[in-house]
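Summary for the steering committee. The consortium agreed at its last meeting that each partner would contribute one worked example illustrating the joint modelling workflow. Our contribution is presented below. We chose a case with several input lines so that the handling of multiple components could be demonstrated. No manual editing was applied between input and output; the record is shown as generated.
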Amino acid sequence: MSDHHHDHDHSHAPISNGDEPLAARTRALEELLVERGVITRDDVRRRIDWLVSRSPADGARLVARAWVDPEFKHRLLDDARTAALELGLDPGPSPVVVALENTETVHHMVVCTLCSCYPKALLGPPPDWYKSLPYRSRAVADPRGVLAEFGVELDGDVELRVVDSTADIRYLVIPRRPARTDALTEDELAAIVTRDSMIGVAQPLAPTQVAA
Amino acid sequence: MRYRTGESVRVANRRHDGHHRTPGYLKGKIGIVERSHPAFTNPETRAYDGDGLPEQRLYLISVSQRDLWPEYRGAAADRLFVDVFEHWLEKAE
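What follows is the complete predicted structure of the assembly.
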């Protein structure tokens, strides 16, 4: 793979030309699948276009509505897919979405230890750290340590629930509504709901943190 | 549906060569059924061009973090929630 000559004395990671083994394997698989008529290049392109068109703004709209409308929150907790459709959002293909509510006494954070399962339809593509081995292993074994690195210190009497999404269900965290946000509109509330707060590794922004 | 919410279950401590969705850290551990999900096709056969039938019911179970990691540093009440297919669960008494 590398023809890099080390005629200099410092060490560095190989300079990537996009031919890492995994990328090469993925391309080879795609070639085969296309060649055998299982998928077309258009299928792949459409799927990528769909993925990059998704964003955490959709999840934030769900959370903001749940904050201002308790009845909607019930429906969201009961069946997030139907609740998303109610707001005109695309809950994505088949997997079931389950919303989990953070409260004064319970905090949820989500991980996929086996790969990178993530509610992409409502949050967009997962961040790189979510797919990284250190997050996937430490989130289950030392979640409070991981949260501290994200700047979240939970009280000792808060029950921390780490949710390992191992199968067909996708989990979305409804973070706690910050204090002193009574005067905010639903749109202003949505603006403080970050991607990370819906994974459960951050709290929503303080209203003053949002650029006017 | 074989298990009810609140019931104690043990995750089978069995080796499985090939693709499966039961994390190793969970095998042999005892937990509580928190929620029953719908049934889904079985990834263990679907991964090898099978049809994934019969569908397997999926459960959200929770296990005490201290039962998973002897040196767990967090609060005693902390739990790990994880989805497990029915054929990986056994009744725990």
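Chain B has a mean pLDDT of 95. The helical segments of chain B are 43-46, 65-68.
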